Write the structure tokens for this entry.
Amino acid sequence: MNDNSKTVVALLAGLAAGVALGVLFAPDRGEETVDKLSRSLSDLKDRVLERAKDELERLVDTGKEYGSKSADSYQSAKEELKEKAGSVKQEVKDSVIDSIEQA
């Protein structure tokens, strides 16, 4: 978890604690207090889930980006290796022909 995620989690936890304490110490009837607390926690849950969804999408996009870069690097390395192998093959062939001609 990166520093930004830790900060967001700490902020949300503090917010939830503040809301819960504020509702618990409010001068309302018990049922009204429970309803307020329930609504507040439900809103908090929705915000946390939305943030988690955004973070997951960001991670998936980052993973796709790295995967694409890796595939491109692999393809480049493969093509370069193929070219070098062809070059070495030609050098060996030329060397063998030269050796035969000199013999």
Notes: Helices lie at 3-24, 30-102. The mean pLDDT is 83.
